[in-house]
């Protein structure tokens, strides 16, 4: 079973062509046919979408048509009423008629919007503020082809885009393809809160919203804590529909525990929670999930992922994503969603977003330590640096060695410093990649994209700039893609209460110290939840959703056979040197299984994706 949600189509104001064959080619890229979608066709193009995930509407008098994928909500009472009566696309057309591009100020929630105005020869593409939905597009001459799948855009007969070498490099650097790039040459994707206007020439992109950071005059701490709790409850209420069987992912961390607890509160019954475990030391966090479940009296469901499960999951992941995707936690996410589906759940609530808007990632505190270095007087740094870095036998003296390491890292300015541990910085690129491949790519592109997001932040504070970067890279480009696609593959719909617009805007009213202060993470977030969450959950250190792939790889023969076959094939593609692949295998086998297992997974998924898409 699948809940595949697809929006795709094209517009050409100069050539009057409507082709069901072209539409069929786009849909086939995502395993769908013409019978699976609703189609709007005119002499300038076609738009198709799966129902009920999408709504479409046409305003014949104004020469406009719109399609909306997702579940937006409307602050305007009139637009809410129109959406309830005729669908979100009809409300979008009314807002367009009244406000033009400013209609995006009237839309909240998750959405991907296509609006075509034949009278003014304009097409508006937009995605929601946090990037839950996505839109990709390519311009070929006077035609604009679009979809929420980059692969579908690439398969349109006027596009026929090949896989991009640049994107493959970015994938190996970031473990996904960061926006605005996609896996296909000439195909772009929108960033969170971005729109594009097409009028026959190159689409003009702009951000229609940016999180404001203004902590002046916001009230007492106690008032803020109460507001946070009220907004969080409201956010869960917005995503809960008593007509649909709803559950929650529960990892045992503060985010998923908060969502699970609030689900029980707003529904008035025991929340149905779904948790994943691993029978591998250091990876299993089920005990924390059980603490939360007992605390709230939840109906807890658990599943232990095994190495055998990965044999099923690895090719499934490669086929499911329209771009190569290397986040290994996609596998447990799939099995958790599958378990929910098997228990009759149609909608599952996920806790993603708390880290990126309330200060939950450990690197925020760690990087703050390095920033202290730049607050020291320049004269003092110039005096101490030569003494420390040139200290005789310094590498053999622990305090001196640590000081040297600190200075080396502190010298690198943010956001580049966060990539100092990247796999592709461990060895010279000439030893990793084949010469022809390396000559064809811009190796600085991933850092340039990170710098753009970091410095585009409206706040000058380092913590908030890092969070702004994580919103784009960690959340929108990575975690949301992981969860939404794996839930679709498992046959359930996922919703993200902590990305509620009101809650996100509230985060901008907090000071940086109410997010991270002296190494303490999520300061106000956790203070507000004391008494609601178990004390053990509040005190728990961040763990993440790791997968013991590297450990299992040493002991599970079928998994090793799948991996060896994929790496052998990848070594023949002219991308990564066979000698580097052999080095990774040796390092993995000699005591660094978990660490090198990460890159091996990324490389195997690349090969499996290339097999499915080239």
**Rg computed from alpha carbons, rounded to a whole number of angstroms:** 25 Å
Number of strands: 19
Q: Summarize the biggest pleated sheet.
A: 6 strands, antiparallel
The N- to C-terminal Cα distance equals: 25 Å
CATH class value of the domain at 7-207 = Alpha Beta
Structural class: alpha+beta
Low-confidence spans:
none
**Major sheet strand order:** 2-3-1-9-8-10
Question: What is the CATH superfamily classification of the domain at 7-207?
Answer: Aminohydrolase, N-terminal nucleophile (Ntn) domain
CATH topology-level name of the domain at 7-207: Glutamine Phosphoribosylpyrophosphate, subunit 1, domain 1
Instruction: Specify the number of helices.
Output: 25
Overall residue-averaged pLDDT value: 94
Helix fraction, binned, reads: 40-55%
Approximate shape: globular
The CATH architecture of the domain at 7-207 = 4-Layer Sandwich
How much of the sequence lies in strands comes to 15-25%
Describe this structure in words.
With 614 residues, the chain is an alpha+beta fold. It contains 25 helices and 19 strands. The strands form four sheets. It has a six-stranded antiparallel β-sheet. It has a six-stranded antiparallel β-sheet with strand order 4-5-6-7-11-12. Strand 8 and strand 9 form a beta hairpin. The longest helix is centred in the C-terminal third of the chain and has 29 residues, at 462-490. It starts with 6 loop residues before the first strand and ends with a helix. The model has no long low-confidence stretch (mean pLDDT 94).
